[in-house]
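Go through this:
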Amino acid sequence: MRSAPTPEPSTRRTDRQPHGSHRTAALLAGLDGVPWGEIQDSSGSAAAIPRLLRKVAWGDAETARAALKDLRKRICQYGFVVEQATAATVPFLWELAQRPQVSCRAQIIQLLKNIADARQWETTATAYPKLLNHRENPVEWERAARQAVRARRDGLERLLADDDSEITRATTELARTLGD
């Protein structure tokens, strides 16, 4: 009498992340470790920021530009008003600016320059010092965001050597802003 064949053990790995997630781990490592839902962007909760950063990282040119435009509104509205989530987003922007496969690198560098230039809340606090007494202190957000840009400025040299003139032009402007 024949017995049913014993199935062979699978050689397929089960510990892998779904397609696309592995790239997320490699490129935007640490993104999911930020408590985005607990911090604010210009629209309220910053919970959408990881999704937008991923679209910038792996979207086609049109998708990446649209995501960056939305991200800009959320973390550096009008090009000079930073939010609580801005400083947490900056390291990921620096990382994306360094990656040749990202289609809107020059625009990311311009956003970093805008963040480094931001002084809206400090200027407002000069006229209205009571702003500094609020529990949520936007002047501190602004300072933290500028410091986050400065903390990663060691990436400037590599960007200045890029073959793309748009990237080198944007990087030169950022370097001037940072005083490098």
Observations:
- Residues 1-25 have pLDDT under 50 and may be disordered.
- The longest helix spans residues 61-75.
- The radius of gyration is 21 Å.
- The chain has nine helices and four strands.
